[in-house]
Amino acid sequence: MSVSRLYTGRKNRILLLTALLTPPFVFRRVIFFERYGT
Predict the structure, then answer these.
(1) Which domain of life is it from (predicted)?
(2) Domain coordinates of the chain in residue numbers?
(3) Which tens digit of pLDDT belongs to each residue from 10-28?
(4) Is pLDDT of 7 > 60?
């Protein structure tokens, strides 16, 4: 297992945790900025 794969797995886990912990309106705002932001 490569280091980059391990890193992306850890990043995805952190993103999933933040998605579970943040309120829905904040999460939607983050998705909005990721889609239409820079």
Answers:
(1) Bacteria
(2) 3-36
(3) 888 888 888 788 788 887 8
(4) yes
